[in-house]
Amino acid sequence: MQRQTRFHVTGNYGGDRHSRHSRQPGGANLMGNKEKADRQKVVSDLVALEGALDMYKLDNSRYPNTEQGLQALVTAPAAEPHARNYPEGGYIRRLPQDPWGNEYQLLSPGQHGAIDVFSVGPDGMPDTNDDIGNWTLGKK
């Protein structure tokens, strides 16, 4: 004999449920968490890019210049000065983008240290208060 189970669901569990939660005091925290996650991604990317740039310098006795940019980590620079000891496959497979879809930037020599590696931040504009750079990490 087969047993039958019946369920009775009460309440509204559609889209209204989620919008109700987003209006609660804790919902305001979601944007703060997104901003923290975006910043952490930038910090992780900057640390990885700095590591690759340090390896480039170790192999070639200098960092790529601003014109060569971060692309020098993916493919050997065609412009002078050439990388003398460039490894097959480069230093990284591809360049990451920041959480806002922008390319990371390199100034070499930098304004804050030997090199400046940075994101132009959510506004997409350089030299504004939302830029996040390796100089804000307490390095180089």
Description:
By secondary structure, the protein is mainly alpha-helical. It has a domain at 43-137: Glycoprotein, Type 4 Pilin (2-Layer Sandwich). The chain contains two helices and three strands; from the N terminus they run ααβββ. It has helices at residues 15-22, 29-60, and strands spanning 105-107, 116-119, 132-133. Strand 1 (105-107) and strand 2 form a beta hairpin. Residues 7-22 have low confidence and may be disordered. Residues 29-135 form the Type II secretion system protein GspG C-terminal domain.
Keywords:
single chain, Type2_sec_GspG, three-stranded antiparallel beta sheet, T2SS_protein-GspG_C, mainly alpha, Pilin-like, Pullulanase G protein
CATH topology of the domain at 43-137: Glycoprotein, Type 4 Pilin
CATH class bucket of the domain at 43-137? Alpha Beta
CATH fourth-tier homologous superfamily of the domain at 43-137: Glycoprotein, Type 4 Pilin
Structural class of the secondary structure composition? mainly alpha
In the sheet with the most strands, the strands line up as 1-2-3
What value does the Rg take, in angstroms? 23 Å
Secondary structure tally: strands: 3
Helix content percent band: 25-40%
Largest sheet data: 3 strands, antiparallel
Order of helices and strands: HHEEE
Q: Catalogue the unreliable spans.
A: 7-22
Kindly estimate the percentage of residues that lie in beta strands according to DSSP. Answer: 5-15%
